[in-house]
Amino acid sequence: MKYLMILLVFVPVALLSRYLGGPPLLTLAAAALGIIPLSGLMGRGTEELSARAGPRVSGLVNGTLGNAAELIITFFAIRAGLLELVKASITGSIIGNLLLVMGFSLLVGGLRNGVQRFDRSQAGLDATMLILAIIALAIPSLFGHSIEAANHEAVEYLSLGVAGMMILVYILGVTYSLKSGTGTVEAPHTQPTWSPAKAGLVLAVSTALVAWLSEVLVAVVEPALEHLGWSEFFLGIVIVPIVGNVAEHLVAVQVAAEDHMDLSLGISVGSSLQVALLVAPVLVFLSLAMGNPLTLAFNQFELIALVAAAMIAALVALDGESNWMEGVQLLIVYAILALAFFYLPLE
After folding, report:
1. Mean of pLDDT values over 224-252
2. Terminal C-alpha separation, the chain
């Protein structure tokens, strides 16, 4: 992942462009590119600190904080009132992990190793949990219109109730994993190489810079999108999830190439579960505290994409085997969805 560090040059470019009155498009692009290596450093710092607690705790901590960069971006988007971008980024993270990341992992792993095998029971359990999470996300959307007709505030209460139960499921899942050892796959390299002081410093500085760049990115979203002709929805569903999680995505592809498919699937499916069961509910409560309430009412196009991605992931996990052709199929589905979202005329 060292080559990603080259992108750190865009950090000062974004800040200078923002505060010296540079073009919004340059500021947006530089901020997005600068966040990529910083999110990787956040992950590395977290990994170095948690590795001292043992592989099982390390895996859970890394997984829980794997979407931290994206959570920071959406925090500033909520503060700016860009709620549709936030909901689109939730959808984009889930389908991106299940179709784009898993697709590349299966493609690269299959081309290098042929047919790859993984723990069918664990993959099936994760797929079932994922489908249940998608159902939970869909309930406020499917019932919202009818409920809102009778009581507008009830939709918000429904979202808060669903969010609370999803967080409870996530906490119970983490507790179960810690006690039983299931759902955690040890990475090939778990020994820390940094001192605690260095790891803590890197984590603190990279997190602060991600927050700064996220604020810069959100500030120029509207003028930059107007120049590009893109919708806020497309930015949220395709660009933001990739920017916030590209370092983690590359790890999933790398370990698939090394024939560690259990770990690769654990990253892609596990990250989707974390977004659905932890990130989305946390954002609901966070938005309420910030005075910009966010509900879990997604539009019909997002629901279709979420259901399709979850079903495909479940089908891939059924036989406990994967090949490069399955990866191609997942990537094609993602490309079709991305193209459709690009042309979708949503305000």
Report:
1. 85
2. 37
